[in-house]
Amino acid sequence: MLNLKFIQENPELVIAKLKKKNFDASSIVQQIKQLSGKKNEIQNKADQCKAEMNKISKEIGLLMREGKTTEAETAKTRTAELKDSIKQLDDDFARIDQEVFNFQVLLPNLPSDLVPEGRTPEDNMIVKSHGTIPVLPENSIPHWELAKKYDIIDFELGVKITGAGFPVYKGKGARIQRALINFFLDEARASGYLEIQPPLMVNEDSAFGTGQLPDKEGQMYHATEDNLYMIPTSEVPVTNIYRDVIVEVKELPVKNTAYSACFRREAGSYGKDVRGLNRLHQFDKVEIVQIAHPDNSYELLDEMVAHVASLIAKLELPYRVLRLCGGDMSFTSALTYDFEVFSAAQEKWLEVSSVSNFESFQASRLKLRYRDETTKKPVLAHTLNGSALALPRILAALLENNQTPEGIRVPKVLVPYCGFEMID
RNA sequence: GGAGAGAUGGGUGAGUGGCUGAAACCACCGGUUUGCUAAACCGACGUACGGGUCAUUCUGUACCGGGGGUUCGAAUCCCCCUCUCUCCGCCA
Fold first, then answer.
1. Does residue A249 lie within 7 Å of nucleic acid chain B, judged by its CB?
2. Is the CB of A379 under 7 A from strand B?
3. Which of A120, A127, A166, A396 could hold A162 in an S-S bridge, CB 3.0 to 4.6 Å?
4. What's the predicted TM-score (pTM) here?
């Protein structure tokens, strides 16, 4: 969430910047300003009352010790009124504080100056294209048919065991999954990321910390008996490592990577977009996360984009990089690059990675800070994350783009990982 | 699942009603000493939100797992909740 002081001091700037996200912040900002003024006023009054109360209490303590009980009793009578006002003021404060917070969390993150204007995905800016779109043989088929033909992914079996969106990978299908995970993790480690194996379920505090709650409540599987949530991405547990933490400047940037299964309810999804591997309830993903000093977080974002680009290039897939426009960005992001690979049989681009700088928006809720070297004061850090990469759509593109009459060719870089060159 | 113990500052850990925002030790930071390292010694050392000078400083309040209560006054007493640890049972 946005810093309260920042909103109070820069109301016009907040409103102007959020316009780019097609968000009219004027009334919220105005309410926040008004309420926080009132809040400060109440706090001042309450603090004064409490100061007096503390003073009297100390005096009573001294009188009691000296045995002056009658004086102590007189002093006590003075406190009753104070006590009432304090109670009243504290209640008012708590109420207004909550109101301010409720408004505060409605405001999305401010987009970076680099973010292009626009409302829809069509307005996203293509900043890079790489590779050539393959020309497939006559009778090419989409990945869900290939999966059946070579018996490597069984969607119906998943339906039997669990439900739609929980495919069963078999034989070379299972092995190529494992190969992709290992490949991605090794590449991340080579780029300086520390490998983490996080819990797949998180508690409520963690879900709040990265903003899954309350905003995306319905998107997570919720084990109500124990009040735990299945993670929708390893970003959640990995970023929450740093919840309520003050890191040393010399530790920055912190670079973590994690493989995990990801679970998403995808309530409201339907139609052809969910065909095959395009949208699943459970899928595998390797995530990269960085905690950065505000001075160089955008350099690190570029570095992460380059890392993801190299992964896709090594897999010999044609891809493009989009800088998302204001209207297509997520609530929490300041700047996002999406990666899309071309799925040749479906003849469409599939999103396989999203790399974002959240600046201090996530850190604010997480209370993730570093200690400034000159002032020695805690300052909110910047957080960044990206998928590197999500498996299903990568696999879909690999299967479709590499299909030949003899079988599906495995990219060279994966052969040592999976131990075969063809799926046949 | 049964029984018990516990939750205090970056860490260990003292503290059963006022002199405790909190001992002591360790770590970190600054300094002295030193050929270098180490040791020793000295000093500083929480966070949040307010207020005044808004640069250094000064000041008020809150915070000892979370919430509520008793009291003039709570880390300390009472109630509820959460979590952790130990033992037993079960088990990969």
1. no
2. no
3. A166
4. 0.92
